[in-house]
Each structure stands twice: as C-alpha cells, then as structure tokens.
Amino acid sequence: NAGVTQTPKFQVLKTGQSMTLQCAQDMNHEYMSWYRQDPGMGLRLIHYSVGAGITDQGEVPNGYNVSRSTTEDFPLRLLSAAPSQTSVYFCASSYIHNNEQFFGPGTRLTVL
Amino acid sequence: AQSVTQPDIHITVSEGASLELRCNYSYGATPYLFWYVQSPGQGLQLLLKYFSGDTLVQGIKGFEAEFKRSQSSFNLRKPSVHWSDAAEYFCAVGEGGGADGLTFGKGTHLIIQP
Description:
Chain A is an all-beta fold. Chain A contains no helices and eleven strands.
C-alpha cells in the first residue's frame, strides 16, 4: 500500500494564480481531509469529506475548494492564491468509525 | 468547542533521561486521543491512540501515554530518550464516528542534548 500520497511536494505561486494540490489514498478510507500547518499554530482543518460526492468546510475554508468524485482522490484547489496561503498542506484519511488519521508527506506552498 | 493545549512550546532533555510531554484537552463527549510525531520536513506519524479501555496505552518507539479523565489530560512519556526522538510532537482530540476530523494542539518541540 502506498498509503496517502500528495503531489507536488513543493510549489511556488504568484499572487492571483490558481492551482490544485493532489491527494490520493489506497486504503479505502471513507474520510479524507485537508489541513494546513503554520508555525506555532499546529494543524488546522480546511475541508473534509465523508465519502464520494460529500464535502464540508472545516475551521479555515476561505480561499479553498474541494471535490470528491471517487473514494480515492480528494484534490484541494486554490482559486486565487494569496500570500496568506503560504503554508504546508497535509492531506489525511481515515475510517470514519475511529478517526485515526493517516497523513500524506505534505506540500510546501509559497505564494509570492 | 473542542480544544487541545500543549503548555510547553519547547522542551530540552538529555539523551537517556526520561520525558513527559503534557497535553490537556477540552471535549464534551468521550474523546478519542492521539499523539503524532513529526520529524523535520516530514509528515505526521501516529505514535499512539486512546479510544477506550485501559487508560495507559503503549505506542511505537517506546512511548506510552496515560488518559486521566479527571484532569482532562493525555500526557506522553518515554523512560529514556534517544537522539532520534528529537522532533515536533502533536496531541490531538476527536470523536469516533465523527466527521469533524481532529483538533490539534500547537505542538511541543523536543530537543535532545548529548
């Protein structure tokens, strides 16, 4: 099993550009989520999904969109990047019944 | 709303000494509790978890944690640290069967002195 995979590992954007961070898992987990990690802030939940076709907002959803067309994939879209979105982004997945999150390796995003 | 407090931003421990990292949580129902470790430039790895039952749980790499409901705490311990334990440690709380993900503390940075 590859677990949770994320691409790209690093990305630099200019303000106003858009991009999609990819996330995939091969553990047949129902639940997938995106977190951002900022220094001294821990991890904060952006969006989550409890299954294909179902998404919802977390603690810090503004500026981000998600979709879940398959169980395996959960891409995160930045519509118009801002410097405040400079962060490390982690995708995670779990079975709904136990909330034990498995994390991907992260994407380090810089917005200039 | 649920919350997690890790009171120590940094902790320095000598190699071979014992370690305790503190975690206090606020949660309305019976919590599911987790400790994760993050090495520099890496993702998060699960050290251990508490769902129910025995309040002393064993994890990987020789770590253990004790759930104390009366103190709303879930402190992480290791009897003898190794230089490779230097990392960032995160405590997290969530609910089983819930869709709200995990709420994380802000982390404790562990430094190991030779």
